Amino acid sequence: MKRENLIENIKSKGSFLCVGLDPDIKKIPEHLLREENPLLAFCKAIVDATAPYCVAFKPNLAFFESMGVEGWLALEDTVRYIKENYPDQFVIADAKRGDIGNTSKLYARGVFEHLQADAVTVAPYMGEDSVTPFLGYPGKWVVLLALTSNKGSHDFQFIQDGEGHRLFENVILASQKWASSDELMYVVGATQGKMFEDIRAVAPDNFLLVPGVGAQGGSLEEVVKYGMTKDCGLLVNSSRGIIYASTGADFAEAAGHEAAKLRDQMAGLLKEYGVID
Ligand SMILES: O=c1ccn([C@@H]2O[C@H](COP(=O)(O)O)[C@@H](O)[C@H]2O)c(=O)[nH]1
Predict the structure, then answer these.
(1) I want to staple 21 with a disulfide (CB 3.0 to 4.6 A). Which of 46, 55, 59, 90 is the partner?
(2) If you take atom 16 of ligand 1, which residue's CA is the nearest one?
(3) What's the 277 CA to ligand 1 centre distance in angstroms?
């Protein structure tokens, strides 16, 4: 998907919500365990219930891979289901890939050519030659980890070099030489609050994928205050807060309700910050 289409979808839906598909077999409603593929049945129902309120889905591959072949099939079928039924949705494979060049090349082939995801999360630790094999696929995106939402983000990501640049800033500054904001986004955790100002100082145009609202307690208002651009520039993800809003028979309805609440909040913020009228 091209950048202008993503922006258009955000504006027309009044939403920059990304629904995280993290289906945990230990948490999905009991009645679904009787289905042939419980993960797939769960994801399809969540997708149908939330698609009107979001612009993106982010399946996290760990939740599928942990179930072996059945999990991988559920992932493939979920992505296919989204593409066939909701072609305007942006699909992010949250895989946190990155390896030596020839291996990254095959990771890229797997997520873009086989799985048909629009974007993949990539870890920058191994540097340029581990990231560039994911670039140059028309309409596909790399989402590079920059400043993550977890407590461990403070272990390395804030370490400063001799010029006072922190590691997350160096990741952004270096990677901007590899690709434009038409194919490169960054992961920045909603829990980082005011740090979005510092992120915008080095990445004024890039879209940011923002996990950490909902279950991790990040503030949507703060993310928007410090991180929103004239094009919105944000995809805010919530996984558990939406998909496990209820673990009963009404799980899909409850997920739709939570997604609608976030969408309403987002529509208000998009108006307040002048992105839409
Ligand atoms: O910094 C990061 C990077 C990725 N994630 C992933 O996003 C979702 C968040 O789930 P919630 O249930 O909304 O907390 C999950 O898939 C993480 O692996 C992140 O949280 N932080």
Answers:
(1) 59
(2) 60
(3) 31
If one counts every other C-beta atom within 10 angstroms of the C-beta of residue 70, the result is: 15
CA 159 to chain CA centroid, nearest Å: 25
With 0-12 CB in 10 A as exposed, 13-18 as middle and 19+ as buried, what is 201? exposed
Three-state secondary structure call for residue 155: helix
Residues for the chain: how many in total? 277
Residue 244 domain flag: yes
What's the confidence (pLDDT) of residue 141? 98
Q: Quote ipTM for the complex.
A: 0.99
Cα 161 to chain centroid, rounded: 29
Distances (CA, A) of 165 to 1, 172, 180, 227, 247: 33, 11, 21, 19, 45
Number of domains comprising the chain: 1
Q: Would 103 be classed as within a structural domain?
A: yes
Report how far ligand 1's centroid is from the alpha carbon of 222 (Å). 18
Confidence of residue 3 (pLDDT cuts 50, 70, 90): very high
Which residues have any ligand 1 atom within 6 Å of their CB? 20, 22, 60, 94, 148-150, 187, 189, 211-212, 214-216, 237-241
Residue 277 falls inside a structural domain = no
> What's the chain's Rg over C-alpha atoms?
18
- Which residue segment(s) compose the domain that 236 sits in? 3-272
Task: For residue 230, indicate whether it is catalytic.
Answer: no
For the domain that residue 268 is a member of, what is the CATH number? 3.20.20.70
Contact of 236 with 204, CB cutoff 8 Å: no
Q: In 75-173, at which residue ranges do the beta strands (DSSP E only) sit?
A: 90-97, 119-122, 141-147
Q: Within 10 Å of residue 155's Cβ, how many Cβ atoms?
A: 9
In a domain, 15, yes or no: yes
For the chain, what percent of residues have pLDDT higher than 70?
100
Q: How many CB atoms lie within 10 A of CB 80?
A: 12
